[in-house]
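Why do we bother with holo predictions? Because pocket geometry can differ from the apo form. Keep that in mind while you read this record for adenosine-5'-diphosphate.
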Amino acid sequence: MKMASNGNKDQQKNILDNLRSIFGFKERQKNALPPKARFSIWYFLITIFLFTYLQQYFFSAKVETIPYSQFKQYIAAGNVGKLTIGPENINGTLKGEPVQKFTTIRVVDPDLVKDLDEHKVNYSGHYESKFLSTLLAWVIPIGLFFLIWRYAMKKMGPGMGVMSFSKSKAKIFAESETKVNFDDAAGIDEAKEELQEVVEFLSNPGKFQKLGGRIPKGVLLVGPPGTGKTLLARAVAGEAEVPFFSISGSEFVEMFVGVGAARVRDLFAQAAGQAPCIIFIDELDALGKARGMNVMGGHDEREQTLNQLLVEMDGFETNKGVIIMAATNRPEILDPALLRPGRFDRQVLVDRPDLKGREAILKIHSKNVVLSPEVDLHKIAGRTPGFVGADLANLINEAALLAARKDKEEVGITDFDEAIDRMIAGLQKKNRVMNAQEKEIVAFHESGHAIVAESVEHADPVHKISIIPRGIAALGYTQQQPTEDRYLMTRSELLDRLAVLLGGRVAEELVFKEISTGAQNDLQRATDIARSMVTEYGMSDRLGLVAYERPRQPMFLPEGFAPEKAYSESKAAQIDEEVARFVEEAHQRVLKILSERRNILDDLAHLLSQKESVQGEELRKMLSESNAGMANSSPEAD
Ligand code: ADP
Ligand code: MG
Ligand code: ZN
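The structure, written out:
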């Protein structure tokens, strides 16, 4: 027996391997479950199978099922020894050695007892207990379900107990060295520059600690999908040569309450043991949506997980050398608590690449592609405004596939043309590609914002102007950079802000004598500011020092829920009038600013159509060159 045991095991393994291939199990990587845990369910099924098979084998050898007619013949021939008559079947033995058992299904036969008495058969009645069959019918399926459940739990995590499925180590993976570095990402130089500091800290935490410098704890990468946020996070780890713990926000949100929170705890505990390292939470918005917007009330699973994340981030000492990075393409829906100091207080914009950036990205991704010499990546970049890094990588791939299909030796310009046409058709559906006329309108619109921002006294300086489409809502943007943190705003600052918001629309009005729908969001925001000035801050001289509305409290009010009015209808009409007056006065002021600087507006818009993005310095240079002495027009509403 002992000798055979080894062979048995091998055989068993073979059977398992076969089953595995039959049921489509693929070999997994090392970090997956150990084989034993994985296939315990198969052991179980095989056992059941063997058991029923053996049972049948033994029983069918001894008990023969015979037709009722034959049973009657046995009686007539006097062959029957002993009989047990049940309600459904009759079991008995035949005379002779060895004793042979038989069974037959009972049929309606009122003469049976008479027959038996005639042939002197020894018979008795039998009550068939349903206990065993009931037990089997219930217990086996329940047992099976339990085992399948256990199996599923184990698949989620390698721990042995039921509770340990929170430890999903398969998903929290640490790459000790991501082979990605900053050279693999292009067109996002500003983001790279900002992250350089993180790299320096991670590669030499001691240096920073000695000087007591403030080290960022959480860095949030913000940008549209496919711009390289995930890539950049891994590149930071690669540059600093530290472990990289990565998990996606959606993976935290599990169906079992408490699992997400446990995972967060687990993730941070693991990372603490590996410092210096990076914890990267991809798609933070899946988990970090603002809390309290749940009208039905109650804590849901996501909230618990988010709370745990906040707790862990607070409890973390930065000088341990762990930096938490996260990525999102929807920063506006994040819970404000996540963005507070000590959490994700540093935000890095990972933007769509401009012309130069696109060319650089194309260069990176065409490194391993044989391009025909006629292919000019600069021209291709010019034809693909609005494409992000992922689109461009895809473009090169598509072109290479097209060339391969035609059995070409190298990827030619026609392949690129075809690939671009295909992709643009796809992207147009998503509103990410503009035609030439739209592009011009957007260029003037954004130039208007930027020039007004530079011309009024209290607006933040322009950092960058861009007409790279960024999705349905915004066709271009003017990015202003605050020079300092602000907690209070004065009346003239608010008026300047109002002016900047109207700048885009007024520029369109001035140049095209017509306005587009692109200014809708600007108008909305401008009106909001004007209304707040009137109703909340008491900044209207006519209505005076009365707050007509309380600040909105998102903790208790679901979105779109209007606060109760604390004023009469006539007051409401006055408020509306006053709001309209604020906006109209700002409109006149902006009209004046832009008419005076019409030549700059034209120049800037022209430059913008060409380059797609213009830095703030360039605009300031244009302004100071054109008319150095122009006085700032001051707010004159009221
Ligand atoms: P995100 O996380 O912002 O949605 P990813 O980092 O997942 O985008 O980008 C997907 C892929 O697109 C990357 O793996 C890379 O091949 C390519 N890619 C995106 N942005 C860039 C870039 N700036 N430079 C080079 N390649 C990029
Ligand atoms: Mg990503
Ligand atoms: Zn605008």
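The mean pLDDT is 77.
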